[in-house]
Amino acid sequence: MPVPSGHRQGDGPIRSPLMVSTRNTRADVVATAGRMFAEKGYHGTSMRDLGRELGLLGSSLYSHIDSKEDLLVEVVDEGARLFLESAQRAMESSGTASEQLRALIGGHVEVVLDHQDVVRTYLNEARMLDDDHRSRVVESRDLYEGVFRDVISRGISTGEFKRDADPKISAIFILSILNALERWYRPEGELDRNAVTEAIYESAVASLS
Prior knowledge:
Blueprint: H1 17-21, H2 26-40, H3 47-54, H4 68-92, H5 97-114, H6 116-125, H7 131-158, H8 167-179, H9 181-184, H10 193-208
């Protein structure tokens, strides 16, 4: 995820608000909003907080955006896009259903660990959107879950997974484990991303065998 503009203490020389604001792009604003939504929640982040973080004073922030909800929409849409693109790459890889399931799990882990702010906002703050945008999020999540269901169904038909496995329940089970990563995984911990991927994959296969 892009590094938000603006330095905190210890990150380097402090720039004046004018110096910061002249270098901000819309992408900077969205990235910073994503980080703040992830850290403080949507309702816990005010436009004043965001402007202060970016060094944008008064109405300057509104030259980049129309509203705080617009920022939430962009961050959530980015989360949906990242997961769907990851699933598409996994499905384009040749191989058995088991191999594609591992690719799906590995891709999900990569998205969570490489875009933690976006993912945290996507998973936890999308409920703050209006009905139309929230419905769009539900559709994208259903589409993503459907990829897992299809792979599991294929594995059942080929005999890789047990015949009485329920594709929907199994997909929800696997995604629940994957989505929990944003709450407990720490890069400085003992497990690297490969170990996490293998552990989740082994749990998934065990539940399907």
